Batch of 4 targets.
Target 1
Amino acid sequence: AKLEKLVADEPNDTAFHAELASVLMLRGDLPAAKSRIDVGLGISPNDADLLDLRSQLAKASQGPSWRKSQREEGVHFVVETDLDKRAVRVIARVADEAMGQYEQVFGVPSDSQGKLPLFLFAGESSYKAYIQGVADANAESTLGIFSPLLKQVLVWNQSDRQGLIRVVRHEVMHAYMDRVLGFSPPWLAEGLSEFCAESKDEEGQWQAGGICVDHLRVFETYGLQKLSVDQLLHMPQEHFMANSNYTYPMAWAFVHFLLTTSPGNRAHFDAIWGRLKGRIGPMAATREVFQSVDMAALDKAFWEHVIALIQQHR
């Protein structure tokens, strides 16, 4: 409502039109976003932000411009690829299975928004071209993303099949959290996505709390306690992503700590989940949950948990 008032008060300021169009896209209201972009471009036809949003809106509406593609519709996703039919079937099964498990463990979204698009690109170059302007600079070297703006899961076909499956499970959790919680603090968004990406064993049985040995090796390489838990919890998104070689493993380990160690730690997870579900902002929710916690004791217990995991998996 505040943004709509700014647009009404300053109808010729295209920055407000662009910001409102972005918000509408994040809400999934593409027709309203298109209308707002058109109004803004009527005021300033060469506005770079509005032109970029128009390009992203086309992606959200139409997807990649592949000349030939394969499509598989599942329970939760419509998967499309410029690879073969077998590839699309495998990824559709993985994505559907992951979303089904997340709903079973964390709850079904209260409002159904239909099936989500998932696009599997044959190569890295076409993937990178498509996510330009969608992902931040730190994400553009990744193997996949979920775009809250486009409401699409985007991955490319790396040769490591198990690695690809892990990426799909990670990004599907981002998609799930977008539907259930909206915005989440980076430690929770990435930590829980990494936790869930590791939560399936090689025999195909779903098991929560899988161990990411690569993350444990990061602590052995770079050292323990480079950050405190308090620093991790209150770190802004841009700083979190800029230090992702350490913050991702630490966020995964902290979520693992909350979900697998004690009822008291699980209560912290449930508390922040409940606040985010109630649409309290990410930073405010984090402050509310942890403001009365003895952070020195929590930090000590967390790093003891990490050390124990390292020793168990050497």
Target 2
Amino acid sequence: MGAWGPGSFENDDASDWADDLEGSSGIGMIKEALKTVEKHKFPESPDCCIALAAAEVVAAAKGKPSNDFPDGLREWLAAHKDVNAIKALDKTTVNVINKVQLKSELKEVWEESDDWLAWSKVLNDLQNRLKA
């Protein structure tokens, strides 16, 4: 994982996924990102990074974007007609975040880092925005 910070888009996997989403026309990529983590007992870091980026899109669709939510994704959301379908993923998204926080390779990577608390704060903030 090429990470440069604890934010949901501060790694290569999430950044690349966001670029791909900007070029897509539906919510399939968001659903797939969440489903990939949901179906594994111990999801791998890249899948978790992508799922967290997808979770940020769901939060933004609910009107609760992070401060560093990419402008390109803001434009993608504004142009999307099925924002309500994205919003409907909020419960699944919260479950996925819980899984990443409790039992994932990404959690183990961050636990060994000096930025563990900062990463935990980012995920807690994301969950709170989704539940609001």
Target 3
Amino acid sequence: MVRFGMGILGALLLWGQAAQAAPLVGRITFGKVGVTNAQIRVRELGTVTSDAKGYFVFTGALPGQTYRLTASKQYYTFPPVEYHFLGSGEASIRGSCASDTVTLEGRCMDRDPRRRDRDEDGLSDYQEELLKTNVRLFDTDNDGVSDGQEVTDGSNPLDRGSALPRLSRRLCSDWNGFLGGMYNVLEHVSTNSKALFIDTTLFRDDGWELSAEHNFVPRGTQFDVLVHAMPGWRVNQIGQVCTFHSGQENELDGRMVYYHPRHGTHPSENRFDFAFAMPFTNGIRGSQFVPFNTFQPSYNATQQNNAVANWVQVANLENKSASGTLRFFDTRGKVMLSQEVRLAPNARQDIPAHQFGTNKVGTVGWFPAHSNQRFQLRNIRYFYDNPMLFDSFSTAFQLEGAVGSGEQLVVPIDTRNQSSVIELVNTSDSENRVVLTLYTPTGAAIQHFSVTLPPYGSHHVIADPIFPNSFGQAVVQGSRRNSLLATAMQYGRGAAGELLFMYGILATEALGTELQATFNTYLGQGCRLQILNHTNRFQDFSVSAVYSDGRGLRRSSGGDDETGDRIVLGRTITLNPFGNADYDLCSQAESNRYGVVRVQAGEPNSLSGHVIRVGVSDQYRFPTPMRQ
């Protein structure tokens, strides 16, 4: 297809069989909209005009020939492109038509008044008319990214759930002193070659400042702040912790990680009830949603009456008071409760979703009073190892609030000694037809079906019987913009059916070229690197990893070849169309180290990935998403 990029016309070229003249079919677009009446010329084949949808056809193209394509349209200029039209090799794989992309870089000429950019978002008014974005709004869909930047990134400027946010210079997360006390570790990652100074401030839940400290993050690596050791941190209290850094936006990433020690054990034993991470975010403007679930997932009869809690957290990320309405929907989209929430600056409030009783499933929606204010929404699911709500747990995990999307979304699923349940949520006020396909690591589709969700309704797909004892991915897409959340919930169980761990991964759009996350082998942790191909094309990528001191990880002990599920760092790896891979990354790392792992994609917006941290004896597992 055409690349979704600012000032770019793309031509999708499809080739026929080798040694035969074939039609050269293409499409010219600006953004995702076809450009009409553009003149495309190939000296050997003549000149054609694009149709109402931007398509054009040259007849008599010969595979193996190199053609020079030029394009013209009033108010635009384009440099010529040399394109080698192939007709063998990949062109005949599986007997299907292969494709490649050639792009014509263009620029807008300013002599016509239609070329003005009234909202200064980087797109001319004429471009915005083609894209159907608002010529007077810098950010038409209010997702925090300008229309021009979204076109450059390849996201959809008309869909709030499709964006590649640039993390701001001030980043906040929640700290928690309840549950008998937890390790609160705030991980900071420099995303490029610049070293950063960071100021980290601890706030009470009412926004009152408690303490601050100053630190340094070496370039391209990681530094952790032990929030539970900061002055003012107290047991049985909650609040926010915020970091301000010396760099530019998107030069710092990271997350808060909670580790809950098992009651009565010494820290040196590395025994934990649970651990989970909360990635940094700018917060979200407008409505956002998160699923809730009070079912007991243990198969062990002795655990069936143990308590399950869902604590929904709403945090105000503004420096002024803010308010909104929290609504709880059942699976049919019916409102169970509507509650107004008022928050002081930098304040947070926790509301129980388990107030509706056991064995309830649904969605929580946050609807702010003003759409330009930023909030964080999340649901933390706690599974106790007792029925009396004592601070002792089987496991726990948190889910981030998010905005529904109408774009193609992909999420890993894993039924190897665990269960995988795909939770689908309609975040719109209209019916939403959702299409879902499950793929194996080689990209083979093993199940394809659709389900129609009522407004604000939800539906669960249990992957175990469809996809037994396997790793793969689910590809989902809703029928409307801003409409779909999909979360793969993973439940690990022991030999007697007892619950060992639980975590969830939100299905995402593939955005970015260099993706990164962190690994950590402290506390006896392991980790797995999972990479997913979102496209119907072969995709190349390579992996690199460095410790916090800048040293690189060693190659696999198997030498130049991958051994078992290890990965050869620095070597190009190819995934099949819609294929995926799962590697034991931390087996190649030293003990008691942490650092950064990076995946370099061969094609922009083609891959997504996660690093799954694994506790000793599967006490816990939790994902950290790879981000640009």
Target 4
Amino acid sequence: GNVSDNTCTHTANQDSSPSWNVMFDRPQAVYRFLLYNRFFNDCLDLSCSQRLNHFILQSFDSNNNAILNYQDPTETVLLVYTVTVPGHLRDLPVSRVHIKATVKVNSDTYPILAICEFEAYGECAPGTWGLECNNQCNSSC
């Protein structure tokens, strides 16, 4: 993504709690998340690409109970960050995802969150099926 082409979301420098949320229409059993970073050539230096370092990704069920609490451990800047959900959490239906920036770089007053694309991969929540996951399973489903 490229901020100048308006293909990325970007929090303001004055935002003291920079974050981004997505809510699913129906709960989903998610097994992987992908976050696309800003392209390196979109920055005057590498600093804007470092803003995703050590991001926090949290997923929640429909009662707002935490399912996954992940913090990026990498020290290197990546173009695509992959968060793989541990197997024992993959059947828990996710209703909301919260992403938070934690790194303040150079002259930033607060951390800035820039995401150029977000993808979530998964299946229908247990007990549902169909392209839109809106069909209820019978006992043999």
